[in-house]
């Protein structure tokens, strides 16, 4: 594929609001996880963005009010993202900028609350509850498009925990085919009872902060996040944009709805497809940001898959010990962390690891490391056997 | 810039439209539309044990997907897939929400994993033992338009066949109070980037940032108007009518409140028609 430059980036997660706060937490090896205090749930640890509860949407967009869109609004208001979009609107026209975003559960928390407030006599949902603009999956794409004053095509992608990674793939298609000249890509997923209790029902939530790649890892910690990037063609002659998307690869396990393929066949296919799309060899990759949820099965299978494609010479890590598993937002969270690694020549090591699983063959980082990163790959895998790998690198204009 | 491709197979299920061979006659206006009780299709790829695990939405989606690919002569593990749905599986969602609001909020693990919006895509790739990508697109009443645009983009950019499968079934009460859905509807199109001897029609799709004129979007047959307005997947009826009538037609599909897709569908002359 033709490289696409990231001309703006923004991220809000448990690590903080904005790229600088994210980078500072990663450098300081400061986790955003805390004991679960969400709703009435007290099991495990979560990556919670407390400020989201005070975020108010602009009056014209009030009907979109829900935790998920509030988180998205925080991200849009951070890191000069809205200002960058104003410049892009002037440059291309608002109808030439696509919105391609991912979410797994959208504003389901609003529906959870509505179910708790049903009329005791007839079971009716509260009159105030606006399903269309909160929980319905298109809500996030429509909110972001309206908030940024855009009028181009918009899509919500929902492929579970690969959702916002998959958004890059569809955005790249719209740019490659000339349907759009630029695309806002990213996603949001927010804390809710459904995922906290659902992953607990699957016995996948650790009682402790998650420990991806650790020999004694025993589950994930759920987090929430929203993040977006603005993608533009590298040929547009843009300057001062350090990082570009070079390749995307998507695949399916075709194996089980919630358990990974035991040999990582789908993960291998996604990573190889991303390399092919970027026209790069495995040895060109300097760092891999793992999906690395901290569950026994995911991390073991992903290690097998990474070893099969890359061998044992490339440093790998999961940053979910910092942010928690932000589900449908994991793709954009880790895409942005991967671009920070490239931009700052800095590899964040896994958190909370006492001993790397001795069966792992990839080179797992458990401490931060400074190293030049020309190209890096980020993995996202989701229920439904949905896999997506993205390759980022220094933008062509930044290369000497 | 418009996206082009060829329709090489179609699958369809709705009350009164039980598969393409029967549905084509109704859509072409050769038979009256009678939205009566219609037997549910059996998805051929799904093993009997799995069939019991999936709800109506997944069952319909997988059935029409198979129908389209069989017509196109494509193997299910050889095509990229784009699914589209606004409602997903409302029965599963409702059961989970009900449990979450109860005093004993212990969720069923299987119901939880079946609640992902891409469940049909997941079951499809499992049934087909496919490693090809399968995405899932949503955009409220415009989910068919959004999934069509995504599929046409993927088709043009990747240059390999794409399966488009869009479905919506009504949400149960009390969700239905907030989101009315008219009937159940599932449609699948097998799309090819290049002309094929078996192609039914060529398709050109263009995003236009101006609102749709309803006369250019509504099905020609008035009997379909309630269905097309009340079910996001049934917004495809205008396209399906053109395909069934085997006539060149230019029409539009709404895309959010302020935009549309302009579509030109031209029938291909086929050996098997003679």
Care to describe what's here?
In chain A, 31% of the residues lie in helices and 22% in strands. The longest helix of chain A has 15 residues, at 296-310. Chain A contains twelve helices and 17 strands. The mean pLDDT of chain A is 96. Chain A has one domain: Thiolase/Chalcone synthase (Peroxisomal Thiolase, Chain A, domain 1, 3-Layer(aba) Sandwich). In chain A, strands 1, 2, 5, 6, 7, 9, 10, 11, 12, 14, 16 and 17 form a twelve-stranded mixed sheet that branches. A three-stranded mixed sheet of chain A has the order 3-4-8. With 400 residues, chain A is α/β, with parallel strands linked by helices. Chain A starts with a strand and ends in a 6-residue tail after the last strand. By secondary structure, chain B is an alpha+beta fold. Chain B has a single domain, classed as Peroxisomal Thiolase, Chain A, domain 1 (3-Layer(aba) Sandwich). Helices cover 34% and strands 23% of the residues of chain B. In chain B, strands 1, 2, 3, 4, 5, 6, 7, 8 and 9 form a nine-stranded mixed sheet that branches. In chain B, a hairpin with a 2-residue loop joins strand 1 (3-14) and strand 2 (17-18). In chain B, helix 1 packs across helix 10 and helix 3 crosses helix 6 (119-127). The model of chain B has no long low-confidence stretch (mean pLDDT 95). Chains A and B meet through helix 4, helix 6, strand 6, helix 7 and helix 8 of A and helix 4, helix 5, helix 6, strand 4 and helix 7 of B.
Search tags:
heterodimer; A: 400 residues; alpha/beta; Peroxisomal Thiolase, Chain A, domain 1; twelve-stranded mixed β-sheet; 31% helix; 22% strand; globular; B: 274 residues; alpha+beta
Mean pLDDT of chain A: 96
Biggest sheet statistics of chain A: 12 strands, mixed
Q: Which CATH-level-2 architecture of chain B? A: 3-Layer(aba) Sandwich
How many strands in all of chain B? 9
Average predicted local confidence, pLDDT of chain B: 95
Order of helices and strands of chain B: EEHHHEHHHEHEEEHHHEE
Shape of chain A: globular
What is the ordering of alpha helices and beta strands of chain A?
A: EEHEEHHEHHHEHEHEEEHEHEHHEEEEE
In whole angstroms, the N-to-C terminal distance of chain B is: 35 Å
CATH class of chain B: Alpha Beta
Query: What is the CA–CA distance across the termini of chain A?
Result: 21 Å
Q: Which structural class do the helices and strands of chain B define?
A: alpha+beta
State the secondary-structure class of chain A: alpha/beta
């Amino acid at each position: 594929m033709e490289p696409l430059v990231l001309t703006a980036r923004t991220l809000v997660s448990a690590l903080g609001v904005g790229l600088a706060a994210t980078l500072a937490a990663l450098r300081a090896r400061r986790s955003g996880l805390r004991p679960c205090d969400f709703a009435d749930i007290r099991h495990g640890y979560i990556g919670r963005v407390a400020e989201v509860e005070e975020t108010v949407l602009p009056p014209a967009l009030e009907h979109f009010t829900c935790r998920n869109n509030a988180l998205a609004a925080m991200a849009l208001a951070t890191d000069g993202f809205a200002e960058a979009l104003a410049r892009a609107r002037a440059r291309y026209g608002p109808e030439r900028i696509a919105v391609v975003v991912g979410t797994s559960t959208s504003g389901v928390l609003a529906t959870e609350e509505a179910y708790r407030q049903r009329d005791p006599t007839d079971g009716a949902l509260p009159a105030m509850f606006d399903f269309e603009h909160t929980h319905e999956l298109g809500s996030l794409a429509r909110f972001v498009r309206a908030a940024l004053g855009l009028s181009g095509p918009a899509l919500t992608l929902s492929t579970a925990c690969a959702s916002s990674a998959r958004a890059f793939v569809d955005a790249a298609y719209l740019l490659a085919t000339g349907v759009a000249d630029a695309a806002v890509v990213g996603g949001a997923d927010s804390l809710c009872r459904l995922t906290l209790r659902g992953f607990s029902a699957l016995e996948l939530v650790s009682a402790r902060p998650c420990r991806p790649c650790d020999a004694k890892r025993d589950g994930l910690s759920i987090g929430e996040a929203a993040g977006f990037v603005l993608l533009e063609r590298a040929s547009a002659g843009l300057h001062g944009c350090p990082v570009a998307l070079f390749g995307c690869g998507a695949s399916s396990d075709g194996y089980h709805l919630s358990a990974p393929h035991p040999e990582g066949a789908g993960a291998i296919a996604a990573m190889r497809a991303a390399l092919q799309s970027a026209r790069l060899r495995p040895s060109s990759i300097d760092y891999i940001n793992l999906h690395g949820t901290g569950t026994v099965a995911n991390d073991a299978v992903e290690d097998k898959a990474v070893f099969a494609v890359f061998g044992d010479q490339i440093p790998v890590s999961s940053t979910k010990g910092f942010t928690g598993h932000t589900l449908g937002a994991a793709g954009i969270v880790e895409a942005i962390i991967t671009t920070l690694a490239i931009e700052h020549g800095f590899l964040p090591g896994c958190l909370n690891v006492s001993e790397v699983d001795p069966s792992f063959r990839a080179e797992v980082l458990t401490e931060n490391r400074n190293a030049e990163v020309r190209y890096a790959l980020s993995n996202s895998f989701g229920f439904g056997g949905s896999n997506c790998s993205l390759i980022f690198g220094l933008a062509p204009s930044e290369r000497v | 810039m418009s996206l082009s491709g060829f329709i090489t197979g179609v699958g369809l299920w709705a009350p009164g439209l039980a598969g393409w061979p029967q549905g084509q006659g109704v859509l072409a206006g050769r038979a009256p539309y009678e939205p009566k009780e219609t037997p549910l299709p059996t998805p051929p790829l799904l093993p009997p044990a799995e069939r019991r695990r999936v709800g109506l939405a997944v069952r319909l989606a997988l059935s029409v997907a198979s129908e389209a690919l069989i017509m196109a002569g494509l193997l299910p593990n050889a095509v990229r897939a784009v699914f589209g749905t606004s409602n997903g599986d409302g029965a599963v969602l409702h059961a989970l929400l009900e449990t979450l609001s109860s005093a004993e909020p212990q969720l069923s693990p299987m119901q939880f994993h079946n609640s992902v919006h891409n469940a049909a895509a997941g079951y499809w790739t499992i049934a087909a033992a496919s490693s090809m990508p399968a995405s899932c697109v949503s955009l409220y009443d415009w989910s068919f338009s959004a999934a069509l645009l995504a599929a046409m983009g993927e088709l043009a950019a990747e240059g390999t066949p794409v399966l488009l499968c869009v479905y919506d079934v009504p949400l149960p009460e009390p969700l239905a109070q907030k989101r009315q859905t008219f009937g159940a509807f599932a449609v699948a199109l097998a799309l090819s980037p290049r002309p094929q001897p078996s192609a039914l029609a060529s398709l050109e799709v263009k995003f236009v940032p101006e609102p749709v004129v309803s006369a250019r979007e509504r099905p020609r047959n008035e009997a379909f108007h309630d269905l097309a307005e009340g079910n996001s997947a049934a917004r495809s009826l205008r396209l399906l009518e053109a395909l069934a009538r085997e006539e060149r037609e230019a029409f539009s599909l709404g895309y959010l409140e302020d935009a549309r897709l302009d579509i030109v569908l031209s029938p291909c002359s086929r050996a098997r028609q003679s």
